[in-house]
Amino acid sequence: MKPPSTRTPLDLPASEPRRMNGDLGASFRHFRALAFVLLCCASAVHAETIDARLDWAQRTELSTPLSGIIAEVNGVPGAKVAKGDLLIRLDDRQWRAELARAEAALDEAQALKQEAERELERNQELYERTVLSDHALRMAEIEAARANAAWRRAQAELTRARLELEWTRISAPFDGRILAVAKQPGEVIVNRLRAEPLMVVAGDRLLARAEISAQTAARLAIGDAIAIEPGSGETQGRLASIRQNGEGDDGYRIEVMLPQTSEKLFPGHAIRLELP
Length: 276
Known about the structure:
Elements: H1 15-46, E1 48-56, E2 59-62, E3 68-73, E4 80-81, E5 86-90, H2 93-128, H3 134-167, E6 169-171, E7 176-181, E8 188-189, E9 199-203, E10 206-213, H4 214-218, E11 225-229, E12 235-244, E13 251-257, E14 270-275
Antiparallel strand pairs: 1-10, 1-14, 2-9, 3-5, 3-8, 4-7, 5-6, 7-9, 10-13, 11-12, 11-14, 12-13
């Protein structure tokens, strides 16, 4: 009869440790795969895809503070423009005449100022020789000050005349596109209480606008990267603004700035945004 075995659980054959190590390795791989799946699911829970619509990022109404007759209009709706291009010009004959008058007035004021300064110097010399009264010297000083003030006013009038002549020409403030033209050559504009819009231009940059809930707005921050799916290739924009639709409204609107203008995209196009 064989004696009972005294082998303990630690006394395993050489093959058994290898089998246990293999089981542990397989368990670890299963755990890692499960963790990856859970991470993907967590990201999917937070990610949200919404509908959006493109619009111009910058839209500007061009006008002038002057009243007058339009002499020239360059461009039609839809035309592209470069920064500095002349778009509208008023009949500038009136302002050129004002500029000439201001230049002549400044020349006259300059001459009077110089003569008043020379007269003051002569009176000061006489006063030092004690042949001129205090009152006479004081009057010469006042006259010199008056001439200097007139000269400064003439300088200001010349600056104003130059500015108004510049305002007769309206140029494109940036590279972009003409959206609307409100006036044509020969029409009169009267700017009294408010400047009339003469042309509307938009910059090259586009943005996407979309409606979101308050819960979604709470987890977003200005500058967040937003994936954009326009259908012509995925790109990425930046969250530019978050605003409430109205007081007491639980809806919000976001604006996402596109990185650059694409010929395949145009205001009015529907796209998809993938929120983080």
